[in-house]
Amino acid sequence: MKPLALRPRVSRTLVACLLLIWLAGCSSTQFFYNRLDFFVPWYLGDYVSLDRSQDALLEDELQPFLAWHRQDELPRYIELLERAERSLDQPVTRDQLMALTLDAEQALDRLQHRALDWMLVLGDALREEQLQEFMLALREQQAEYEEKYLERDDAHYRDDACERLQDNIRRYLGRLQTEQKTRLAVACANLRRSDSVWLAERAAWLDRLDMLLQREPDWQASLRQAVA
């Protein structure tokens, strides 16, 4: 398998940044992570207003979820990052990247599965007007996204996408060499637009979610199947 063109020094910088993000004792990420019991309800408040009993229910349901993530998942993240760092002792192959990507996707699947436990309990406790409030917030967000993204022409889309890509690369890799800048410019020029597809799929999902939240018998199992 042909190695990817990843320079060892640049690649190690990327892994070091990832390790700092997840593991540094004084990082902002750790600050937010250690306060998820506050930030999750705060974030949820943008979509639905809970009463006191529902707030208490959410707190009770969140605690075992957060404990599971800290005790079981964080060590697996550390192992994954350490394995990624060790792989940089030699040129990184596509197979290695695919294996790391698969592990990351499986971690996301585990997170989604466990998060649904408390989400479905809370969803069952919401009143009809709260479910309507929740769906209205999501549809208003959809309208904002469509206005923001779909009104761009193709050139504007490529400029926005390339600017975000360049910012992320500079943040994690530092200054690029001339050859790398050239490759990035070519990649940006060949970007295929995907925002309309993403928003169409999101709109279709909102319609399906709205139907599932009518809470017919076995609606929780149906929702789990829908997001699987």
UniProtKB/TrEMBL annotation:
<dbReference type="Pfam" id="PF19795">
    <property type="entry name" value="DUF6279"/>
</dbReference>
<feature type="coiled-coil region">
    <location>
        <begin position="128"/>
        <end position="182"/>
    </location>
</feature>
<protein>
    <recommendedName>
        <fullName>Lipoprotein</fullName>
    </recommendedName>
</protein>
<keyword id="KW-0175">Coiled coil</keyword>
